[in-house]
Write a structure and sequence with these properties.
It is a single chain. This protein is an alpha/beta fold. It has 13 helices and eleven strands. The strands form two sheets. Strands 6-5-1-7-8-9-10-11 form an eight-stranded mixed β-sheet, with helices on both faces. α1 (3-19) packs antiparallel against α2.
């Protein structure tokens, strides 16, 4: 497979797995770009200005979206609900898109070449909160939260949000501290056989957090207007609720700053773990970040976590596709994948107590926090 075959395939996968059901605009644009790349057209030259690892649909469309924010009177904006546009995709969409990209290459190219898809969807907190509650119940200690890939650090406030867990029988379980003023309640459907009584102990009891720190190659400040504009651009144009959540969470984070450290997590994680109070347990977590790592980087992270767990009690929470998350530690196929369901992510825990490693599959998780199947059990 050539580099351009791989890039074209990325756009095809993006259509099938991500945007087809929720973004008619990006579905139409993605199909056009994919066909153009396959034919060796204009977008080969556009995307060719960026390194291969940067030639991904979400990043490309975010770069265009970000520049469009600065040019809201352009014809392309008529198709973007995020800019007040109401026009549906039609035969003139691709013409407006190509003309806009051509006219603003000087602004788009640098964003595509250097930007990162740091979406930081706060609804993921609905999936992480039970995991943190489970860690607290398992270890009976306060948590020193350490996030790998925190972007603007919004998920370091997970326990402070207000949650509504909705069960198939219509029951709604409220969870979280609900102290994040201005952030609307976060709704998360519960799939599977989990009952409110089984979930409640992990989401309704106060979470004791001794410290919060994020480790990122390029941490974004919630007080930086440019950083916030980039995060808004990463939200798909039709997703008004996601955009509202993001805006509110950024405002909250700006009022209650947490520590964000710049650097390679593999190099600075040990220091972050050592900084956690002796009476607390380091709770390292990563969600939707490891796909952007190299194979070698992920392997190095596993080695480091095991080294740290051999000398101090530690828990690692992973919310990733199984093969690049919990599967990195088990080395085996996922034994808990439900039949007949496309499980995008698995919520897992790697626990080190007294130097012993134990693996737990806590449940399955939909992308962007869309649903949770909570069913904690040891990994066979």
């Amino acid at each position: 497979m050539t580099d351009w075959d791989e890039t074209t395939r990325r756009f095809e996968i993006f259509i099938d797995r991500e945007v087809r059901q929720s973004s008619p605009l990006y579905t139409a644009l993605c199909q056009y770009v994919s066909d153009d790349l396959a034919a060796g057209g204009y977008f080969v030259e556009v995307l060719g200005r960026a390194p291969l690892r940067q030639r991904i649909p979400n990043l490309f469309f975010a770069a265009v979206h970000r520049v469009l924010f600065d040019h809201p009177d352009e014809p392309l904006a008529e198709y973007y609900p995020s800019l007040g546009g109401t026009r549906l995709p039609d035969e003139n969409l691709t013409k407006a898109f190509v003309e806009f990209v051509t006219a603003h290459r000087a602004e788009i190219d640098p964003l595509l070449a250097t930007g990162e898809t740091q979406t930081n969807e706060v609804l993921r907190g609905a999936q992480l909160l039970p995991a943190f509650g489970w860690v607290q119940a398992t270890t009976r200690r306060p948590l020193g939260l350490i996030e790998i890939g925190p972007s603007a650090g919004l998920l370091l406030h997970t326990d402070r949000y207000d949650y509504r867990y909705e069960f198939s029988d219509g029951t709604v379980l409220e969870g979280g501290e609900a102290s994040a003023e201005g952030v609307p309640p976060l709704h998360c459907p519960i799939h599977g056989a989990c009952t409110p009584e089984q979930l409640a102990p992990f989401v309704t009891k106060p979470l004791r957090v001794s410290s919060r720190v994020g480790l990122d190659l390029n941490p974004l400040s919630p007080t930086d207007p440019d950083a916030c504009a980039w995060l808004r651009a990463l939200v798909w144009p039709e997703h008004h609720e996601r955009r509202a959540r993001l805006e509110a969470a950024l405002e909250h984070a700006a009022r209650r700053p947490v520590k964000l450290r710049r650097g390679d997590a593999v190099r600075i994680l040990a220091d972050a773990v050592d900084s956690v109070a002796d009476n607390a347990i380091p709770c390292v977590f990563v969600s939707n970040s490891l796909p952007h790592w190299s194979v070698e980087g992920r392997e190095e992270l596993v080695r480091l976590v095991r080294e740290l767990g051999a000398r101090r009690d530690l828990v690692l929470i992973l919310k990733e596709a199984y093969r690049i998350g919990l599967g990195l530690f088990s080395g085996k196929p996922d034994p808990g994948a439900p039949e007949g369901r496309d499980v995008h992510e698995v919520l897992g825990a790697v626990v080190y107590l007294g130097g012993r490693e134990r693996l737990f599959r806590l449940g399955s998780a939909g992308m962007h926090g869309m649903w949770l199947d909570w069913a904690p059990r040891p990994l066979a």
